[in-house]
């Protein structure tokens, strides 16, 4: 892929808006629905995911290129990647606790949840199946995670308002959240008309 | 006779009382992503059921050996092993289905239903009931997925299992799109809550 500012800009718009992680590709729905009741927690989760996803894109790409491919073990991709991600999350948690306690107290409780966030593993696998180079893999992780952060932030703002409205009993809780997500997904569909 | 009764009890628990998708609200990503057609839903359901049965069985057999502290990591490795197996099998025998499910086959690893059953059931029970629990939970997941997929395929593409229903016309393309997935699942869960409420009111 071409490396120029213009190409990277198009790639960013595509990853953040057109192919939004939660609303269009259905990755990372569990945290999207689970921790979006308040704006603060939503942003915390978004930042934690951004941090881990960028880092894991970098490391899984290296693991694939320099360990799995030379050893002809490409079929072990799923197992290798999930182990890398789990170890990475654990490592980042410990490192943050020692080195940047302020950041740890902001992201701390969200970090363990990320191991089972399907978006992180999903993006790591997409980077390989789409044959991205190292730069584009890292950018893909970063931009997709920013798209996730944007979606979960907007969604949490909407949900804070829903808390105070009168909802039919059967729709209270989860169903109304899904209907809200549907409307949000509608809005993001508008971006799919964009062509570069 | 006794075994049949307990199998029915398991089935009722997995499909109705504790349906993984509609009641426990687990495994939302594959439910939304693979429910655009009934065939995809059945394929996804079958793959997840296979992994559930195998991982529950193995985790239950190893439940006294796996140390408490590293159990989650151990479960994930066991689950990832079976997911890799089903991924390779599907690529070999049903390449078309494997292509259309794509990324979501390897993502069974992080499907919360499987880890939840491993943690809450298989780690505490004997192998045979654990495998049975995996089977019935898998059936519950597949049925829920099929319900959503049937609605989305009929309304979104105007077909059912690939057969045209309305002479090639798609009534509401919206339902085949991501937004439709959220909408249909939301209404299904609302229906389940409504039925549960009414049943609770009668008692």
Your description of this structure?
Chain A is globular, with a radius of gyration of 18 Å. With 196 residues, chain A is mainly α. The two termini of chain A are 16 Å apart. Chain A has 9 helices and no strands. In chain A, 72% of the residues lie in helices and 0% in strands. The longest helix of chain A is centred in the first third of the chain and has 30 residues, at 39-68. Chain B is mostly helical and 203 residues long. Chain B has one domain (2-202). Chain B has helices at residues 2-17, 28-33, 38-61, 71-93, 95-101, 112-122, 127-157, 178-202; strands at residues 159-160, 163-164. A two-stranded antiparallel ribbon of chain B has the order 1-2. In chain B, strand 1 (159-160) and strand 2 (163-164) form a beta hairpin. The radius of gyration of chain B is 18 Å and the shape is globular. Chain B starts with a helix and ends with a helix.
Number of domains of chain B: 1
Biggest sheet strand order of chain B reads 1-2
Distance between the termini of chain A: 16 Å
Q: What is the count of helical runs of chain A? A: 9
Helix and strand layout, with pairings?
The complex is a heterodimer of chains A (196) and B (203).
Chain A: H1 5-18, H2 29-34, H3 39-68, H4 77-99, H5 101-107, H6 111-114, H7 118-129, H8 134-162, H9 174-189
Helix pairs in contact in A: 1-8, 3-4, 3-7, 3-8, 4-5, 4-7, 7-8, 8-9
Chain B: H1 2-17, H2 28-33, H3 38-61, H4 71-93, H5 95-101, H6 112-122, H7 127-157, E1 159-160, E2 163-164, H8 178-202
Helix pairs in contact in B: 1-7, 3-4, 3-6, 3-7, 4-5, 4-6, 6-7, 7-8
